[in-house]
Design brief:
By secondary structure, this protein is of the alpha+beta class. The protein has 4 helices and 10 strands. The structure holds coenzyme A.
């Protein structure tokens, strides 16, 4: 049975964070860059345990997303991964349920950039693939991010969103979405 613990980055000790990073390195098969890991820090983590062993992780951090003339407080999901041997048993669902509670309670909307492997997970939970064009608010101005259009999903919470409208994420090093 999955047990999910939620905690802010500030309340996870170094050993736990190291274990999470190792888990994500395995889940992403070495494809998790240092900046990807950095993007997963500074918010609320959900940690999934099976028989006391850490088997999955996801986190939500605050970002600003511009949409329809407003700057929306956005719960942005990062670092979603479950150890290979434990997939297909509902751990991903349990992690997302824990983060969606946080998103619904604290943010105007949820957003994330989905891997192909995770589209079913998000789509089955009410996350909507964004239909409109995406952009990033870079130091050089607003830049179109067309390569990201297909992967961006949102979870509407408090505000009506125009799913065909523009979505502009705030700036950060590494992958902007
Ligand atoms: C995406 C990922 C996190 C899903 O984790 P998971 O623990 O396997 O997820 P779940 O078991 O909760 O659900 C995943 C699938 O199993 C199904 N499932 C859920 N509970 C199940 C159960 N008890 N038995 C069998 N299947 C189940 C779900 O319906 C879902 O199916 P779908 O994706 O085909 O629609 C995992 O595959 C992973 O770590 N992938 C590599 C990293 C990655 O791509 N992360 C996402 C980045 S955006």
């Amino acid at each position: 049975m999955t047990e999910v613990r939620t905690a802010h980055t500030a309340d996870l000790d170094t050993a736990t964070l190291t274990t999470v990073r190792d888990l994500l390195d395995r889940a992403f098969e070495g494809d998790l860059a240092d900046l990807d890991w950095e993007h997963a820090l500074g918010g609320m983590h959900a940690l999934a345990y099976d028989a006391g062993e850490l088997v999955g992780h996801a986190s939500v951090v605050q970002r600003r997303v511009l949409h329809a003339g407003r700057s929306l407080r956005t719960g942005y999901v990062e670092g979603v991964g479950v150890d290979k041997d434990h997939r297909g048993r509902g751990h991903g669902v349990a992690l997302m349920a824990a983060l969606e509670r946080v998103i619904r309670g604290a943010y105007d909307l949820g957003a994330l950039s989905a891997s192909d492997a995770a589209r079913g997970l998000y789509g089955g939970r009410g996350w909507l693939p964004w239909q409109g064009p995406t952009f990033a608010l870079t130091p050089l101005g607003i830049v179109r991010t067309e390569d990201e259009d297909d992967g961006v999903y949102v979870l509407p919470v408090r505000l009506p969103l125009d799913p065909f409208g523009e979505l502009v994420c705030d700036w950060r090093d590494g992958d902007v979405w």
